[in-house]
Amino acid sequence: MLRFLLRTAAAVLLASAPLAAAERPNIVFIFCDDLASQAISAYDHKLKLLDTPHMDRIAKEGMRFDRCLVPNSICGPSRAVVQTGKYNHINGFYHNGNRFNGDQPTMPKMLQAAGYQTAVIGKWHLVSDPQGYDHWHILPGQGAYYNPPMIRDGQQVKHTGYTTDLIGDFSVEWLKNRDKTKPFLLMCQHKAPHREWAPSLRHLGWSGDRVFPEPETLFDDYYGRGRAEKEQDMTLEKTFTLLDAKLTPPPSLNEEQLKVWNAYYEPLNEQFRQANPTGKDLVKWRYQRYMHDYLGTVKAVDENVGKVLDYLDAEGLTDSTLVVLSSDQGFYLGEHGWFDKRWIYEESLSTPLLARWPGVTQPGSSSKAIVSVLDFAETFLDAASLPIPDDMQGRSLLPLLKGQTPADWRTSFYYHYYEYPGPHSVRKHYGVVTDRYKLFHFYEPDVNYWTLIDRQTDPNEMTDVYRDPAYADTVKELHAELTRLRTELKVPDQDPPESYNRGGGGPNAGKGKGKAKAKGN
Ligand SMILES: [Ca+2]
């Protein structure tokens, strides 16, 4: 009798398994590196820099989020937030050079344990080997733009070709060979458009004779802001290298590719040398070169987004798949004279977020709610009908995707950047962000001051009004909100926090320990 009951129970479980699987969506997460929303046409940016038809398709058939913020605008830390749904002072990965403690609970582990088939393909940048993935095929550290060495399930492999295309191809290949009885989580993580912005050979000269419009703040002199803004090292004027300018070619090109590369760049570089521009003319020249190259790399990303969407269509998976496209943070495309990221200022604080889930998300919809990469883990778990652990610090975006923003949705957001000293010399700071204001604190002994930005009267974020008496009440309210957030999020008062040199933390904690070692930024 007992045996009969067990057999019956097993039969019921077996019969219900495929049904349960069908009810849970597949998840395709396309994560870019340093992708600015200014470079995505779905965001309808005033400079109209680039057409991105494939990314736009996700927005047209789904939802565009206009204010997706990052807790810490730098590669590794943002990726640690996505894995854990927790701030960096909790997950232990404060800045690049840290080593991610992969033994902690993560979103992919939870999906995997619940029967999802999981894979991460492309840029990883967390130093320790990925955990929670049935398959991983990652770039070591920052990765190369051409002919990248990669690590596939622990084994070193070497590929020939353009990295963005390879990541797209490997993603589709994994989808083709997956176990079709299980739902899947595919994390397709592009290296592009990270510095040094090296386009595919097929996109060299893609913009023809076009002169890209310049941002209003290209020649910002940082008047009205403090020492941190004045003394950074990330301007087109002072920081742009020969490699950034393509006056020297990327080291990862092979001989044959280098010929094609030189055939495009060398005549232009010769013209540049003859003209020998200086001062503002040099910055203008660099901006044009930067836009050709950066946006060129985004074109390849866009085409590879199309590759994955086409596969979903061809396999009849579109309706059962949540597709999310985002970036580890935004990027400066010449605003304030800068490239790179790191600041609480808008271009680096804000990151693109497009999401499509047929039958759930209204096509062509948008949201201005403050959301974050901190919410992705929670969203994916919720989509899979799994519980969200209490100690995760974000919130599921599912209600927003359904067009119903909860009345108690967040109206303020905590930010904290730790990487100083470091590349580009941006000082440590933390602060609170609302729809209208940013109150933030540079808190090192030698550079120590508060700033208040009013984005309503100052959308380009050019003037600190912290000491303006007209803002006294606002300053008081925002200080109180900042304190409330730091308490709620358990931000340690001590900085660097005690956990900094334990577990995943510490600037040198990861050195020499992992196969997927990080380098660069
Ligand atoms: Ca990045």
Short key terms for the protein model shown above:
disordered N terminus, single chain, 13 helices, 521 residues, alpha/beta, 15 strands, eleven-stranded mixed β-sheet, binds calcium ion, four-stranded antiparallel β-sheet
Helix and strand arrangement:
Blueprint: H1 2-23, E1 26-32, H2 53-60, E2 63-69, H3 75-84, H4 88-91, H5 107-113, E3 117-123, E4 135-139, E5 149-152, E6 155-158, H6 163-177, E7 184-189, H7 227-231, H8 255-275, H9 279-314, E8 321-327, H10 346-349, E9 350-356, E10 365-367, E11 371-372, H11 376-383, H12 398-401, E12 412-417, E13 429-434, E14 437-443, E15 448-454, H13 472-488
The structure holds calcium ion.
Question: What is the element string, with H for helices and E for strands?
Answer: HEHEHHHEEEEHEHHHEHEEEHHEEEEH
What structural class results from the helix and strand content?
A: alpha/beta
Q: Which small-molecule species are bound to the chains here? A: calcium ion
**What is the residue-averaged pLDDT?**
92
* Coarse shape: globular
Biggest sheet character: 11 strands, mixed
Share of residues in helices: 25-40%
Low-confidence stretches: 1-22, 501-521
> In DSSP terms, counting alpha (H) and pi (I) runs of 4 or more, how many helices?
13
Radius of gyration: 23 Å
- Beta strands, count: 15
Distance between the termini: 64 Å
Strand content: 15-25%
